[in-house]
DNA sequence: TCACTTTCTGACTGACAGTCATTTTTAAGT
DNA sequence: ACTTAAAAATGACTGTCAGTCAGAAAGTGA
C-alpha cells in the first residue's frame, strides 16, 4: 500500500506549511524580532511541533534561504536552456541582469542570503541539509558563469587569456557586490549618500555591465557593440 | 581646574577597556556565543556598568565595528597623502590592494563589517553614534575612490566617458564583493569549491584588478602596461 | 476493539539581555 | 578632617524566549 508514500508527502507538506508561516512572520519583522511561538501560531501548530521538523530557529531560516536559492538557480537554468542563441558576453550580461532582477523581486530572500553568508559557525552549516543545498546552488551558479565564459572564448566575444574559472569567480563576486549595494539601498538602509548622488540602479548596473563587458570583451566584440546597450566608444 | 577634562578622559578609557574586553571575547567565540556577563568579567567590571557605557550588546559590537572602519580609513588616507606620486589607475589598484590586505590582517573586523551590513533595523542604526561614524567612513572611502577616478581622468589613465561617482560606486562595490569572497574562503566557511579550483587569492585579486584596470583604463594606459603587473596583452 | 506507532502538545527549564534599588567612590565645600 | 552631594559601579532580579520532554491525541493495522 502507498501509505508510506502518502506519509512522506504529508510530512513534506507540513514542512512547507511551517516554512510558509516562518516566511510570513520573519519577512515582516526580521529574524531577531520573530519568535518561534509566533511562527507556531501562524502555522497553526504548537511550538514543539516546529522542532520536530527543524532542529532550531536558524535551521528554519536556512530552509527559507534554500527556497530563495532554488528560485534563483531555476532562473539561471532557464537562461542556459537557450544559451545557444546567445554569445558568451551576452550570457554574462544576462546573468548579471538576473541577479539584479532577483534582488528587486525577492528582497527578503536576498536578505536571507546575506544572513547566510554572515554565519561563521562552519560545523553547524555542514550539518544542515539546507545549507548543503545552498552551497550546491552556489557551485552551480559559478559553473554557469564558467560555461558562459567558455562559450564566449569559443565564439570570440571574450578574451581567452584569462583562466575561465578564476575569471568566473571574479565576475560572480563583483556581481554580488553590486547587487548587495543595490539591495541595501532599496532597504533605505544607510548609504543615503547614493540617493544624494541621484544615481539610479539602472545606470549603476549598466555601468557595471559595461565595465565587465569592456574588461573581458575582445577588441572585436567591443567594436561590434556587443558588450552593452550603452556601449563605450574606445576613444 | 581640569577635573572635568580628566573625567572625560577616564570615561573614554573605561569605554575602550570595555571594547578591548568585548573584542577578546567576541573575536574568539563569535557574537552570538558571547554573553555580556563574560565580557564584563573580562573587563573586570560588573554587567550593569557595561550598560552605563553602551546601550546594548549590539551597540557594543558597533563600537568594535567602528574601530575597524577607523583603521581602514586611516590607511586609505595614507594612500592619498601621496596621491600626487601616482596615476589615477594606480590609485585604484592601491585601494583594491588595501582592502585585500585589510581583510587578511583584520578578518575579525571584516566580520564585523559583514554583520553591520546585515542589520536592517534602520532606526536603531540611525540612533547609534558608532553606526553614524561607520557610515561617515563609508562615504569617505567612496569619496577617495571618486577622487582617484578624477585624477585618472585628468592624467589620462582612465576613460573620461564615465560618471566618476557612478563608476566609483561600481568599483567600490565590486571590490567589496571580491574581498568578501576572499574573506569567506579564509574562514574555511563554505566555498570549498574554490579550494578545489586551486585558485590562490593573489591570482584571484590580480585578475580582478586587471579586469577593472582594462575596463576603465584608456587604450594608452593599457598599452603602457599601467593597469597591472600581470598586464593583459590586447591580442 | 485493541495494541502499537507516529505525531503533536504546551507547560516547563535554563540561559541570557537588560534593569534598578542600593552601595561605593570621588570631588568639592567648610 | 568632616560633610554632603553627585557620579560611578554593583549584582540580584525580571522578563523573554529558544529549546525540551513527559504525556495526550491521532493514525494504523490486525
Automatic annotation (TrEMBL), chains A, B:
Keywords: DNA-binding, Transcription, Transcription regulation. Residues 12-72 form the HTH tetR-type domain. The keyword Manganese does not apply. GO terms for molecular function: DNA binding. InterPro entries: DNA-bd_HTH_TetR-type_CS, Homeodomain-like_sf, HTH-type_TetR-like_transc_reg, HTH_TetR, Tet_transcr_reg_TetR-rel_C_sf. Signal peptide: none annotated. Pfam families: TetR_N. Residues 35-54 bind DNA. Coiled coil: none annotated. It comes from the Bacteria. This is TetR/AcrR family transcriptional regulator.
